[in-house]
Write a structure and sequence with these properties.
Layout lengths: L8 H33 L2 H38 L2 H26 L3 H7 L4 H15 L2 H16 L4 H24 L3 H25 L15 H33 L3 H37 L3 H28 L1 H6 L8 H13 L4 H15 L4 H25 L1 H32 L1
Helix pairs in contact: 1-2, 1-7, 1-8, 1-10, 1-11, 2-3, 2-5, 2-6, 2-9, 2-10, 3-6, 3-9, 4-5, 5-8, 6-8, 7-8, 9-15, 10-11, 10-13, 10-14, 11-14, 13-16, 14-16, 15-16
Length: 441
């Protein structure tokens, strides 16, 4: 456990964020390995099938993430204030509530897989393969929710390393199973889906084993019940964050619908580029989570000056990382795209290189936005993050619908940059207005 109410703020943020970044990269590796292995052993059409299914699964996963972020804010404050009983009640509440929600999503998602994919204008030649992949991956959703809930509890008390080890082992297993099922046994997209489900189950079980070794978080049977007042507070905070998280994949669903109408090569290139976007931006979100935990612990301990200082340090770290990502993505865009296609002359490679050449210099904007969003969550100002996300994603959807049919994949890059600029403007203005007032309250 790590108490961030004392000691070096930069040291705490770095020690907390680095394992969290690695954990999120391992999680991204699940899907990236699927795309690379499927592309090399099953072909471009199989990559397109996975591409069409991913937005549906992403909506559910990010909704879970939003709820657990709300729970994490409360747990971090309880830990900072030294209220261990409230911390344990919140842990039990989010785990049990998450189990019920995940079962409902699983039961709804399996029969509705084909209708969802038809809404995305998924081409008929990949529809059945895409639906089969989605149904199998949904079987692992209860494990995904429980992993996120338990990982949030561990991170709220400053342990970001434990969940990383769980994901590292699960990621290695996922990679091996992918190669075996798709490359050797030739099970096509079903093999990749089965490998992902097994890896998700392993990560959840490993996280449960680690929690058992932490007396502060390990709950007895008598404690395994939902605290209704805490559930209400969790939903009040977490629902706004969940809506914000879900706005992104919902927007991507609408974007994917436009992309799907441009042919298989465009679908495959856009899918590969979104994977690269994730690897660039998700670590920035990890730093934001570290900042949120640090600020929330200090607010719980009533150390407001230290909470404000945490924001300043976090902003510097985010911007430095953003600059490094801009440079790396721009210089390495061509060899990165070659990873996703066995043929270096494939149409998807050229499209992806063009997209990254336009977008990658602007990866610093999400770094700035994520710093503000982490601080807004710590002070329970979640609505502005939802409004900014709606503005950003709504702008992207409208511009992509207009531009992509006319100028191709360049239109998707221009739309994304415009959305990021508008988001930065709104959040920056709100930050200047509310920052001092929030701490006074």
């Amino acid at each position: 456990m790590r108490r961030m109410t004392e000691g070096s703020i930069a040291g705490h943020l770095t020690a907390y964020a680095v394992p969290l970044i690695l954990g999120n990269l391992f999680q991204l590796l699940y899907n990236a390995v699927d795309s690379v292995v499927i592309g090399r052993y099953a072909g471009e059409a199989a990559v397109a099938a996975v591409s069409a299914a991913n937005p549906v699964m992403t909506i559910a996963v990010l909704g879970v993430s939003g709820l657990t972020i709300g729970a994490s804010v409360l747990m971090s404050r309880f830990f900072g204030a030294g209220d261990e009983k409230a911390l344990r009640r919140e842990t039990a509440t989010i785990c049990l509530f998450g189990l019920a929600v995940s079962v409902v999503i699983l039961l709804m998602g399996i029969p509705l897989a084909v209708p969802f994919l038809r809404l995305l204008s998924t081409p008929e030649e990949v529809l059945e393969r895409s639906a089969a992949y989605l149904r199998v991956v949904l079987l692992g959703f209860p494990f995904t929710f429980q992993y996120n809930a338990m990982a949030s509890a561990m991170r709220s008390v400053g342990d970001s390393k434990g969940p990383v080890w769980c994901l590292a082992l699960a990621s290695a297993l996922n990679t091996g199973l992918d190669i075996l099922a798709v490359g050797v046994l030739r099970w096509d997209v079903m093999g990749a889906a089965a490998a992902t489900v097994i890896a998700q189950a392993v990560s959840a079980l490993l996280c449960l084993w680690l929690m058992r070794r932490m007396p502060l978080l390990w709950l007895s049977r008598r404690e395994m019940r939902i605290d209704r007042p805490l559930l209400g507070e969790t939903l009040r905070i977490g629902t706004v964050t969940a809506l914000q998280q879900v706005c992104l994949p919902l927007g991507k669903v609408l974007i994917q619908r436009v992309i799907n109408g441009q042919g298989v090569a465009m679908m495959a290139a856009f899918n590969a580029c979104t994977r690269i976007d994730d690897f660039a931006i998700v670590p920035e979100q990890s730093i934001s989570s570290a900042l949120m935990t640090c600020m929330a612990q200090n607010i719980g301990a009533r150390r407001m000056d230290r909470a404000r200082q945490s924001f300043r340090v976090g902003l510097i770290i985010e911007l430095c990382y953003g600059l490094c990502v801009c440079l790396a993505a721009y210089l390495l865009r061509t060899p990165i795209m070659h990873l996703f296609a066995p043929d270096p002359d494939a149409a998807m490679v050229g499209l992806g290189v063009l997209y990254l050449g336009i977008l990658s210099p602007f990866y610093i904007l999400p770094a700035f936005n994520n710093t503000l969003q982490g601080s807004f969550r710590a002070i329970k100002r979640m609505r502005v993050t939802l409004a900014a996300t709606l503005l950003q994603m709504g702008t992207r959807v409208i511009l992509i619908t207009i531009l992509v049919p006319r100028v191709g994949i360049r239109g998707a890059a221009y739309a994304t940059i415009t959305g990021w600029v508008l988001m930065s403007t709104l959040e920056g203005a709100y930050f200047a207005h509310v920052w001092k007032k929030a701490f006074a309250e």
